[in-house]
Structures are given as C-alpha cells and as structure tokens.
Amino acid sequence: MNTATVPLPSSPLTLEEVAEHFAHWRQQKRPGERIPESLWRAAIALVERDGLSRVTRRLRLKRGDLKRRRYLLSGDQRPGQPAATFVELTPAPMTRFAPAALELIRPDGLRLRIESGDSRDAQAVLERFLGAD
Question: Are 52 and 33 in contact (CB under 8 A)?
C-alpha cells in the first residue's frame, strides 16, 4: 500500500478510529515522510466534535501544526492578522541626501562615500561607480 494515500471511510470517524489510522501510518512510513493529507483532514474533522487539545494529545500531533492545517483548509486567515492588501509605494526623487553619509563597497573592494553637502549629482556618481571597472 502506498503510504502517501491512506484510504479513509467517507462516514465520520471516531477519535479512536483515526488514532488507529495514525498508528498504522506511523508503523508503515519511511523516515522523513510527511503525514498524508487524508489523515490531516480526518484529524481536522474531529476538532469540532472532540476539541483541539484532546485530538492533538490522542493523535500525538503538535497543536500549532494542527491549527495551521485547519486554517489552511478552511481558507480563513489566522486570528489577529489583518487581511493582506496591496499597497503601491512610489519612491521620492533622489535630489539631495539628508544630513547623513552613504557608503557603498563593491565586491572588488572599491569604495564610494557620499556625505551630505556634496555638490555632485548623486545619480550620476552612483551610475559611474556601479559601472566603473
């Protein structure tokens, strides 16, 4: 039997039945093999009925792993996390440096240091520094 897929009956399973499936899989698995999706789904289905603590203890799963799988399966976002949104940032034109210094070092060891108050055109200096050999 391929351990990547563990067939489970379509009817709701009890915690003990799922624990038996986990035990069987653990006996058959190869080192480093991940828990099959069908077992994760069976464990997640039990959480609503039996509770997260009881399921993780009986199935010997990490609480965080089961919670993460549960949220991934439900498509919900994690509690306390805001919905992801796209924000476009437009950089301000680089005309003058603020009172500070900028130091760049190329892989060949060439260094460039620009301090505030330098009257050179920063972009031209940077282009020349990055393109110089």
Answer: no
For the CA atoms of 102, 106, 111, 115, what is the dihedral angle to 10 degrees? Answer: -10
Can you tell me the distance from the alpha carbon of 102 to that of 121, in angstroms, rounded to the nearest whole number? 14
Q: Which two tokens stand for residue 60?
A: 């010997």
Other CB atoms within 10 A of residue 82 CB: 6
Among the listed residues 54, 53, 46, 58, the one whose alpha carbon sits nearest the alpha carbon of residue 14: 46
The structure tokens listed for 37 are 């999706």
pLDDT tens figures, 55-95: 999 999 999 988 888 888 776 555 555 666 777 777 666 66
Q: pTM of whole model > 0.85?
A: no
CA pair distance 10, 59, nearest whole angstrom:
19
**Residue 102: helix, strand or coil by DSSP?**
strand
State which H helix or E strand residue 22 sits in.
Answer: helix 15-28
Helix ranges, 1-131 (H): 15-28, 37-50, 52-59, 63-74, 122-131
- Calculate the dihedral angle through the C-alpha atoms of 68, 71, 75, 77, rounding to the nearest 10 degrees: -90
Integer Cα distance of 42 and 46 in angstroms: 7
